[in-house]
Structures are given as C-alpha cells and as structure tokens.
Amino acid sequence: MHHVVSTRYGRHDLRLLGVKPGATGHQARDLQLTMTLEGDFAPAFVKGDNTVLLPTRSMANTASVFLHDHLESGVEQLAAALAERLVEACPAASAARVAVLEYPWTRVADSHHTFTTNPSDRWTADATARRGRPTTVVSGISGLHRAVTTGSAFTGFLVDDYTLAEQVTKEDRILHLSGDMWWEYGSRPTDYDHCRSEALRAFMDSVTDQRSFSSQHSAYLSAAAVLDACPDIHRVGVRTRAHSHAPLDLSPFDRGDQGSVHLGTDSSYSSGEVTLTRGV
User: Fold this and answer.
1) What is the DSSP letter of 211?
2) Which of 113, 121, 168, 215 has the greatest number of C-beta atoms within 10 Å?
3) Half-sphere exposure of 200 (CA within 13 A, CB side)
4) How far is CA 154 from CA 82, 184, 223, in A?
5) Are 142 and 87 in contact (CB under 8 A)?
6) In this structure, what are the phi and psi dihedrals at residue 35, rounded to the nearest 5 degrees?
7) Exposure of 197 in the CB half-sphere (CA atoms within 13 A)
8) pLDDT higher for 209 or 48?
9) How far, in Å, CA of 193 to CA of 121, rounded?
C-alpha cells in the first residue's frame, strides 16, 4: 500500500487585464496569477473522488471577480484577499498560496487612455493563507536591470589549475546586472506601494557612491541598502546575473585613447544570490 505524503493543485499563469474607466482617465492592471491549494486531497488523487476539489475554473472566476473589485489595490492586498477567500472556499485545504506578477502600465501624461508598458520590471507578491494563522505576504520586483561603467572590480580571487588570472582580473570594469529582489515584512506596512518604491530606489542607489569588488559584493550592498531604507522590511533577498562586456581593441584604427567600445554577450553569465535579515 502506497502512502500519500502531500497533495496540492491549482491554476497556473492566469493572465488578466483589468480596465476601469474614469473621468480623469482610465486605469489598467496587467496581472499574471498562480493559485495553489494544499491540504488533504488524497481522495481525489487516489480514488478519483472529486468532492474535495474546488475546480480550478472556479479559482479563475474568483480571481477575475477580485481583480474587478480590487482594481485600485496593490498586488499584495489582492494576493492576500484572494488567498484568504480560496482557503475559506475549500474545506479540504489547509493553505492557499497566490502568486501575482504585475506588468506595470503607466498612463501617458495628459492622456486619457494611452499607456506605456515596461517590458522589464515586474511587481511580484506571494501571499499564503493558512487556516487558523495570519496571512503572510512576500513582495518583490522581477526583471531588474542596473549597470555601472566604472567603480566595479574583480581581483584577489581563488586560483586553481584552470584559472587564467589575466582572463578575469579587472581593476575597473563595466558591471551590468539583471536579477530579482524579494522581501518579507516584520509588520504589515501601511503603504505597500511606498515600501516598494523605497526598496527600488535603495537598490538602484546602493552602488552610486560605493565601490564594489565583485558582482556578489554588489548584490550584498544592494540588499543591505534596502534594509537600511525600509524599516518595515525584515528580510530581503537579491538574486543577480552579471552580463559580460568585453573591450574591443580599436588601436588598429587609431581609436581608443578616449572612450571605449565593448562587445556584450548574453550567451553565458555568472550569478549570485544573498539573503539578509535585519539585525537585533
């Protein structure tokens, strides 16, 4: 007899666009949602007894109604409200998790209904509602990009038999990072959007006046700056990808004394991840 260890199911990558007309202009929210229920669903998995299952189409309908009713709410409030509703609607569920990814739309200045969309930065919120326990929320930003043209180095590294120091030694270099950032709250903030704006500002400004000695060091400086700038945040994680830019030799063309040209490549990159918690 086999033993069921755990069961979960849900609706993934539901893309919704909510639009609300207004006298001063339209509002638009472009979201992607993943909703997961976990609990005692063994009868459905083992015996095909679906009486314990809330249909995933019902989850999608609930998400659509909640977006309509909470169009002006932040992704954190929407994710938390939806998770709490789903765990309430399904008696067999012990927890509901709702992950929301928002593609920000910004209305063009002086326009009633024209928007710009950012193909890079995406707001994230991950809410978990457990039966009989407070709902937890993790916020974040995905698709971050930041580059510096000086003030970054990589020296003094470990050398083994396959390390060619001249390939990687850089006293000063261009450092282009992409990546993601997420954070947990010590207490629920009064304004999630303000907290997100401050976290993004701190991330971008963290290396303005500081020299970094590796992409890993840059990730730490970024995470520490977020904790310093945002008192509501208790724990923060930063995941980075460092993209290479190789300098081209233009001396045969009598160029290169002032300024430089670099060849960028995304075929391979180095990565780093750091998680910090606030000290007591």
Assistant:
1) -
2) 215
3) 17
4) 46, 31, 20
5) no
6) -120, 130
7) 5
8) 48
9) 14
Q: How far apart are CA 271 and CA 215, in angstroms?
A: 8
Encode pLDDT of 131-142 as tens digits. 999 999 999 999
Q: What pTM, to 2 d.p., does this model score?
A: 0.86
Instruction: Give the integer Cα–Cα distance in Å for 253 and 266.
Output: 27
Tokens 């994230």 identify what position?
A: 124
Residue pLDDT, tens place only, 222-278: 999 999 999 999 999 999 998 877 778 788 888 766 778 888 876 678 899 999 999
Helix (H) or strand (E) holding 106: strand 105-107
What are the backbone dihedrals phi and psi of residue 46, each rounded to the nearest 5 degrees, phi first?
A: -90, -45
Q: Residue with structure tokens 């470990």?
A: 158
DSSP 110-177: T-SS-EEE-SS-EEEEEEEEETTS--EEEEEEEEEEEEEEEEEEE-S----TT--HHHH-EEEEEEEE
Q: What's the chain's length in residues?
A: 280
- To 10 degrees, the CA torsion angle through 25, 29, 30, 33? -170
Task: Provide the greatest CA pair distance for the chain.
Answer: 78
Give φ, ψ of 181 to 5 degrees. Answer: -140, 140
H-helix or E-strand spanning residue 188: none
